[in-house]
Amino acid sequence: MTQSRFYVTTPIYYVNAKPHIGHAYTTIVADVLSRYHRLAGVEVHFLTGTDEHGQKVQQAAAQRGVSPQHHADETVVAFRELWKTLEITNDDFIRTTEERHKQIVQNILQNLYDRGEIYKAEYDGWYCVTCERFFTERDVPERICPEAGCGRPVQRISESNYFFKMSQYKDWLVSYINDNPCFIQPDFRRNETLGFLRQKLNDLCISRPKSRMSWGIELPFDSEFVTYVWFDALINYISGIGYSVNPELFAKWWPASCQLVGKDILTTHTVYWPIMLKAMGVEMPKMIFAHGWWLSGGSRMSKSSGNVIDPMDFVERCGIDAFRYFLMAEMALGQDAAFTEDAFVRRYNADLANGLGNLLSRVATMIGRECGGIVPEPAAESEHEIALKESVLRASSAMQKGIEVMRIDTGVVAVSEAIAEANRYIEQRQPWRMSKDGDKAGLATVLYSVAETLRILSLLLSPIMPGKTAELRKALGIGGDHPHLKDSARWGLLKPGTRIGEKIALFPRLDEPKETRKPVDKTSVPESGQAAAKDIVQIEFNDFKQVDLRTAKVLTAERVEGADKLLRLEIEIGDEKRQIVAGIAKHYTPEQLVGRTIVVVANLKPARIRGVESNGMLLAATGNDGVLSLVSIDGEVGSGLRVG
Ligand code: MSP
Predict the structure, then answer these.
(1) pLDDT tens-digit map of 186-195
(2) Nearest Cα to 245, choosing from 362, 61, 108, 77?
């Protein structure tokens, strides 16, 4: 993180409904980015808030028989409280009905009007109340709102109104976007905006006659009108930092480092907003990042689809941190993702209960039992410790890179790989055997290495799970430290002699929902644990003989794009080369596999897994803690040998 200041914004949320997971997501992403930057010593300003004017709020209030202000005052509480519950560390919360905002919107309108950027004309066209957007005849041939995910009927509107001269800036905007590839992210969203700009761009109708809609900010130059809700709302990003009234504060934070939006509000943020700023003579934000949607039941989660999931349902059951973790891990920033209870429980159990929680409990138990609760002094490192250290430091750089390129999910994958590596390291090194054999130096090295692993990984996860990582660090005896993000890139900072804290169950396992138990995994990773052994169905030797088990050498390995559990392996079985797909990406990195001799079922019918052909299946065992180990062969043997 090279910058010294970081200003991040979320969209301001409509107060016509209660917040759901979609709203919580944007706000948590902004919070995680803010916390990472603070941890890196960067000064942060994080702004969120509520969008309280417009027809939707006026209608929602009318339905309840209360004033729009009363309605907004009540609904805003749900947002404020949810952010408090989710441990959101916003520095400011702006409401568009606040005087500080209204005054700045009026200043801007007057200034643009005085400079001839706003004119009055007859408006005759179509309008979508839900999206609060105007459309021309050509935009709505079917009389259906064309906004992503809307599709509601539009209304005909014919009235005199004020217009902002947006069209004259079209060529400038196209060049600006082309010259500044980081301005709109991800890249495919930039192309979407450029595609939109290939069509004719109209001037923007920015007013509503009060006779039709009065719930808005009055135009300073015509008291018969209020301003269009988007013109009002977008200005929050600069009114919140004192544009035109507090030049020092404004200069400190503008241009924003990152403006997060959902993909449904791409056009307003990547066309209207930059042009408004340009007309005002204000610098462009550094980046506008559009994320995807949380889907529920296959469609966008929204109040009108009736498929919203209340974040509190999950928070109450599994805690704030697990909820935050799931949202960050499950959605590749930019893409859509489905929110299901099944996916939630599975990820919780795999990554948190069996992964991080299990690692802590193993480390705390062993240090308690073997070292009287004191972190031991490590002896010389073997190649095992070096490999573990590399995996942990890789997680540190992957997380930092992930934050820079807005892929928090890839940082999380690298951390969970390091957790799996640490659990596997314990299996390989077998500290319980060292203890039995009296190998004190070996034992101390192993216990120190895993404790140090936990120090680093808990630091990397702290912006996502502030509460649980604080508990973890307390359990490691380092709860009072105030680390810097760069401490995650330095191995060996945990002081031998540190007394560890109370033993805790960080993430108790959750029961999987019965009706959605894990489907048969075609990628060959077996269910974990010994429990299944007693249920084994016996087969005849002849049946077994039909299974052609062979040794195989891994020639290449790579991740399967869009599938975070899968690796594509090119293997050699004797003279033959072929490809298999295996669900082991959470447990092995591609580098750990190349050159290894594994055992595969060579005569399994080919299958397509996530569109990639797989010719065979590798063998692996999964421990009770969910950690997977490949079946391998003792000593140097060739590939293609029959196993059995
Ligand atoms: N008030 C406008 C934004 C004005 S910003 C100057 C608005 N509000 S909203 O409450 O409808 O949506 C706010 C944000 O929540 C948008 O970024 C939207 O994409 C996001 N989400 C709403 N539903 C969502 C999902 N199902 N999934 C992810 N985010 C979605 O638009």
Answers:
(1) 999 999 999 9
(2) 108
